[in-house]
Amino acid sequence: MHLVMIGGSDAGISAALRARELDPSADVTVVVADAYPNFSICGIPYYVSGEVTHWRNLAHRTVADLEATGMSLRLDTTARRIDPEARKLLLTGPGRAEELIGYDKLIIGTGAVSVRPPVPGITGPDALGTADGVHLLHSMGDTISLMRTLDEAGPSSAVIVGAGYIGLEMAEALTARGLAVIQMERLPEVLPTVDPALGALVHAELSSHGVDVLTGTTVRAISRAEPGAARLRVDAAAADGEQVTRAADMVLVVTGVRPDTALAVSAGATLGVRGAIAVDRGMRTGVPDVFAAGDCVVTHHRLLGETYLPLGTTAHKQGRIAGQNALGGDREFAGSLGTQVVKIFDQAAARTGLRDHEATSAGFDPVTVESEADDHKAYYPGSHRIRMRVTGDRATGRLLGMQLFGHRHAEVAKRIDIAATAIFHGMTIDGIADLDLSYTPPLGSPWEAIQMGAQAWERHVLGCSAAS
Ligand SMILES: Cc1cc2nc3c(=O)[nH]c(=O)nc-3n(C[C@H](O)[C@H](O)[C@H](O)COP(=O)(O)OP(=O)(O)OC[C@H]3O[C@@H](n4cnc5c(N)ncnc54)[C@H](O)[C@@H]3O)c2cc1C
Fold it and tell me: Is residue 467 part of a domain?
């Protein structure tokens, strides 16, 4: 059995590792367009900030570790065309030499590519590139170009276009390197994956660390400040239409990703939500013997059905399932809840499940209640308040979503994971208050913070005190 994975990031490598784990006799080849297999691109901001001291340290496993599992790696090799009838794959290797290889089962893990907004200076004939100080950020190659600009041009200021989680992590990273950072976001508040009430707290944290945050600001053009000058000029429009112009030594464009599907489409795969490859929950594309996983495919969401949610956690799980099923298994992807967390300087914001408007579109009758609680008993030093937004269904009391904001040491990530576990298992908000959770004053409270959030929701909706 010859299994071929296209892509050497979270999905492709997870598939290869699982296949080798289940069947050590399987012949597994991983084709990777670049020279960075199994790198944690999620860690890039921490390499840029200097907290991770060498790019090699971002590797989950070295090439030698991967090869020790028995897989073959074809680095700097691009898959160009799939012939599903002949079960052949056309590759272009490092020396541009073409080669046709056969497969029994194929797993596509081509991931996503950065979105380039249709803005002069980013796209079109006058597009500026990395040599001009205009960067995108998705791959290790992008990272090495960015570091070259930082090390060689020594910029002292940057405009970051986009304030999603990667934009926020990069605002922190560039600030840590001593750059003055201006962050421009088209939407009314930063981190639009959480409610504006929590986004405003993230905004305040950025501002308190010197980031100049311009929300409701749409970038219209990037150009050189003066002909031949190194400095860049960013022209934007504020929500009221007023022109906003800023100059900076570099610009980082982080406005999201889109699935990389050209290869799958050429093989006859169909596309689904947001142009991602349509797969069933066993990661089958419908093209015989061809599976796909990760940021290139649609995501099954436990509450929404088919959606697109490109996340590393999901890519790992889907890749593992694709690897198992390619060997004849029948495992299904259980589904995502969009659980995510981001650290912004000294604070963290997290969410899982649905926000109010998402729950309404999905046919629920949601109520969202905001409350606050301490992460541990306030009399023990170092306690922090956690801001919570709990979303539940009015009719059934089912927990639909939770959003948290609190100090980076307030265990926000693990608390959102309790909520994710509860939603995964269809628990009611009332049921959360019944959970037997741990307590000691330096680390918690007899009523855990999110149990207090659940009780606040019940008080609001049922008009009675659930706490006793
Ligand atoms: C800066 C940053 C921070 C992030 N932080 C988080 C986080 O904190 N938490 C989280 O859950 N997610 C995070 N993510 C998202 C996460 O990294 C992605 O969801 C995940 O890497 C997707 O993995 P993938 O294997 O599907 O695709 P990708 O990582 O996009 O990899 C695609 C792979 O396919 C290869 N490839 C593409 N085309 C071809 C071809 N034709 N031939 C051969 N090879 C090809 C590429 O070289 C690459 O190896 C972050 C992403 C970035 C950029």
Answer: no
* DSSP 8-state secondary structure symbol assigned to residue 145: H
Residue nearest to ligand 1 atom 53, measured at CA? 138
Q: In total, how many domains does the chain have?
A: 3
Domain identity same for 91 and 200: no
- What was the pLDDT predicted at 464? 58
- pLDDT for 325 equals 98
- Domain harbouring 167, CATH code: 3.50.50.60
pLDDT at 468: 39
Instruction: Mention every residue, 6+ apart, whose C-beta is less than 8 A from residue 457.
Output: 367, 369, 371, 390, 392, 429
pTM of model > 0.85 = yes
Alpha helices, H only, 130-195? 140-148, 165-176
Examine the fold and report which residue of 228, 253, 278 is the final residue of a domain before the chain moves on.
253
In a domain, 121, yes or no: no
Are both 136 and 241 inside the same structural domain? yes
What are the structure tokens assigned to 105, written together? 């089962």
- Point out the residues of the chain with pLDDT beneath 50: 465-468
Q: Identify the pLDDT of residue 462.
A: 84
Instruction: Say if 337 falls within a structural domain.
Output: no
236 has which bridge partners?
A: 219, 244
What pLDDT was estimated at residue 225?
A: 83
Q: For the chain, give me the number of helices (H) and strands (E)?
A: 12, 25
Range of the domain at 423: 346-462
The residue nearest atom 29 of ligand 1, judged by CA position, is 9
CA–CA dist 367, 115 (Å, integer): 34
11, 116, 161 from 252: Cα distances, Å: 26, 11, 6
Residues 224 and 297 in one domain: no
pLDDT of residue 148: 97
Locate 424 and state its tokens.
Answer: 């995964």
The protein residue whose alpha carbon is closest to atom 5 in ligand 1 is 42
* Candidate from 4, 17, 32 with most ligand 1 atoms within 8 A of CB, to mutate: 32
pLDDT at 10: 98
Task: Look at the block and give the residue holding tokens 């200097």.
Answer: 50
The rounded radius of gyration (Å) of the Cα atoms in the chain is 24
Would you call 81 exposed, middle or buried from its count of C-beta atoms within 10 A (0-12, 13-18, 19+)? Answer: middle
* Within a domain: 122: no
